[in-house]
Amino acid sequence: MSAAFYSYTEEINVANNNQIATETILSLSQLQKEQNIFRFNRNEVIKEIEIKDIQAIHSRAEEFGKDKTYREKYNVAVSRAVARLNILVEYLLPTVKVGGTCICMKGPDAQEEIREAKNAIQLLGGELEKVEEFTLPDTDIKRTIITIKKTKNTPNKYPRKAGNPAKNPIK
Q1: How far apart are the C-alpha atoms of 143 and 87, rounded to whole Å?
Q2: 124-135 pLDDT, tens per residue?
Q3: Which of 36, 48, 77, 119 has the fewest CB atoms in 10 Å of its CB?
């Protein structure tokens, strides 16, 4: 599972001082290979766009979401399509603070997954905010971006132990 978590720590007026806003950015990857690729590119990206705080972590999402250091600390969690939506929200919502947002990329025809995930989204403290369907430029490839607003704290029993969300998704 690959996800990026964003927590805004400071706002800087870009127009007046020509600086980029400071953000705490954390990249979570279960696969060491992905993390190694990110580490290689990270230094170039940080230098180019002057990001002040960034951290790469190798962890399972289920463990990461239980860790008090990271639980409900982020304004935004973003993930590619790594699991069905009812599983994906169990990985992401526990890390997002109330008032924050989860952004989930899905393929075409995500409506069935959205219906399937409505209970999980609500149980985990979220509310479906927006669904955007689009076609990638110069292709016929369709994608869906699902935005979920965190409206209340996630119950402490979530995320469940590694493997449980995928084996027994919230219905």
Answers
A1: 19
A2: 999 999 999 999
A3: 48
